[in-house]
## 1
Amino acid sequence: MWCIFAKTICDLDYCMILLLIKAVIILVVFGITLGVATYSTWAERKVSAYMQDRIGPMRAGWAGLLQPLADAGKMFFKEEFIPASANKWLFIAGPCLAMLAACMTSAVIPFGGEMELFGEKFLIQAVDINIGILYVFAVVALGVYGVMIGGWASNNKFSLLGAIRAASQNISYELAMGLSIIAVIMLTGSLSLNVIVDRQVQPLFGIGGMNWNVFYQPLGFIIFLTCAFAECNRTPFDLPECETELIGGYHTEYSSMKLGFYLFAEYINMFISSLVMATLYFGGYAYPFMDVVAGALGQNIAALLGFGLFIGKGLFGVFFFMWVRWTLPRFRYDQLMNLGWKSLFPLAIANVVLTGILILLFQ
């Protein structure tokens, strides 16, 4: 009986260690996501200032580094305003749903390879599920409901037009985006993001960690990248909130932290979209000569280096989003729809067919 009791205690300790490790990973992933999104607001101002030969924020902290905290304080202490004719509960639920969907997406993204701690092996990933890419698409699709609910509940014609535009835009571009992902799944043979990354860790021309999908799917990557701009409502596809036509679009009637949630969710979506693109097309946490580093310095060091480089790939993606915003003009709405339905959708179908033919020929 004492043996059974001792074994139960050991099993509980083992479970507690695993739960503690998993909790730390979840907190780190969540903290990185929120931290990057917070300072993306500062980076966007600095990038736009550099491109326009200005200085950008410089008063709140050194080089303006405390500007995001000042903005957050301003949002917290702004007056809460709900229009008298608005649907109160849906008006509140809209930004909450947008923020929730944005934060949930990072849960299944593998941030790093396998590490060993306290004698246990684990992945730098919040949750490992075998249908990770489906989860990402499902949660991303929920985000537009936050926009639609907020636009409709405001009882404002400009907000409603912005919400309708957002819904139409997402439907138009999610089809092409999904088809571009199908081609990657055909190459990998799995819906698991870990399996997709593991395939890219394999050697290419003798260089470990360089078997990236972008070399096999350049057209699919361009389609996915274009659709990611539309999914995030970023210029040149920011028609749901364009100020020149709709005042502010779906969040015209919002103020205080409810407006902050909508704006913050956009930056989270930018970072998550960049991480998903890095995972699917640029090897995720894989990097050149990854196997050599693991053999020389150990698996833990190689995994931590991959973790840092993966975050770097995501940050470069965020910079690219900003670069495009301050470079290209906004599309007209008819151009937006034509690009989605008449160009990207046929190209995505052709890419799937071509990928299938090449797999059959070279299998």
## 2
Amino acid sequence: MTKLSRTKPASCGSRRLAGCLAILAGVAMIATTTISAGAETLRVGKAGRDAFSFVPVDVGVRTGIFKNNGLDVEISSFGGDARVQQAMAADGIDIGLGSGPGLAFIAKGSPIKGIAAMAGPPLLFALVVRNDDTVKTVDDLKGRKVGVSTVGSVTSWIVSEVASQKGWGHSGIEQVTIGDDASRIAALKTKSFDAAIVNLAAALNYVQRGEGRILMRFGDLVKDFHIHVIFATDKAITEKADALKRFNKAWFETIAFMRAEKAKTVAIAAEVMGTDAATTAAIYDELMPMFSDHGRFDPKALAVLRRSFVEMKTLPQEPDMAKLTTEAFLPKQ
């Protein structure tokens, strides 16, 4: 019977110890370099910390979806669209999660571009008032002060659109800019104005505390719309094009995960938004339909935005929307 010969595994003898250690160190260095090269950092800014609209980036980070796409995502939160745009212009962030009306900043010269349409009709927001009957119906808002986040934000756009549809003109309701949702609720309580537009989570918490009520929701305000857009700076577009493609890919993988995994999504969202499980689950049910599964820009929605920029006197003339957006970074269908 023929004996099978066995090859001894390579080992490090005392004479070759230093050489083996050097080889191992070299292998470790190569591995570390490869890992670092594959995980690129993107700085992402949210126009609101508590809004469900921006929770997908948190879900994607916590579930490892962005990491699986070779990205380290650093998340910052800002009090409204204008501040996100300022952060991008100052190179403080690479990507901004903002509003469709925020596209007007590009026409004014902001060094950014919309790279994905992430949500449609304005399901996210609600208009809240105090319980003191200062405002009983929407008709009572004519000439009244309403709190919004920042100039050029979607909250500002909604107030103008309500006034316009009521026949009062876009300035028929006076707007007061006051930052994030918490600041608007606090100012409403101190009677700095008579109503405020806030995200649904803030509105439901306000009602649950017995401090006021929801006067109006905006799902039927306009059907063809892009309430939210993913923006990227011109610098990131030039220097991090591949990372932006991977970001959008991971974003829409996250949306698919959220649709399939309600319980896991609600658990993360509740922690991010500071809402209880029942409230968060209700918000999930109401708002998941607004998210796009592909990010492509709808010509009808862009037409609504284009016209509104002039009607609201944000811009002197309608811009070429093709110069404000690009689909070059979206996943191929």
## 3
Amino acid sequence: MRVLICGNGAREKYLAELCPRRGHSTPDHGPWDMAVLPLPRSSLSEDVADQLPRGQKIVCGMTDAAFDKLAEKRGWKPLRVLSDEIYTQENASLTAEGALFTAVARMNRALRGSQCLVIGYGRIGKALTRLLWVMGATVTVAARREESRQEAGENSVSIREIPQVLPRMDAVFNTVPAPVLGEEELRHVRPSCVLIDLASAPYGIDMDAAEALGLKAFLESGLPGRYCPLSAAETLLNYMEREGSA
């Protein structure tokens, strides 16, 4: 494949190194088989957009209405990685591992024997819960759907019950891209607890309220590209090769 790599983040730099090793070229000038935009939020500069012909395949993550409108107008073919089951599963595993790394770096105690709350039980929530259990943490899962709580096991609560369990937590991981921990809920968090938001916008933790309350809260969306960019690039290239051979 001839690949145009947009962006200069760590993931993109490793992708540029991996492509030649696996028989792909990354020329500066077209035509290209695929154009790859930065992840997880993707945007496209006007200069690059003018170089992309009708029918161009564009690998992207979350996009805004302006991009979607332009893609339709110019006849591009967006390849949305977040709609691919294999990619999202692999990405969830990388995110979970990165979440543990960021938590350990900021906690005043080991994960082993700690009390952790995972909010949301989608792909990332499930992967994170499994890793926390392996590390010896006691994990409580908070989920909206009854089916998710049943799957998570007896140590699970509804979203409404979060304030009741917050006072005993050493770490809280949010994976829900909707407000779940506002000022009222955050008042139940003890000062030593570490709050990590892994969700995409509009996120789940009110960071302003957390700061005002003196809490240790961190926004960590898009972790794979920052925590393990080489693995993130490998996962992305695997997806590109599957799409290229489809």
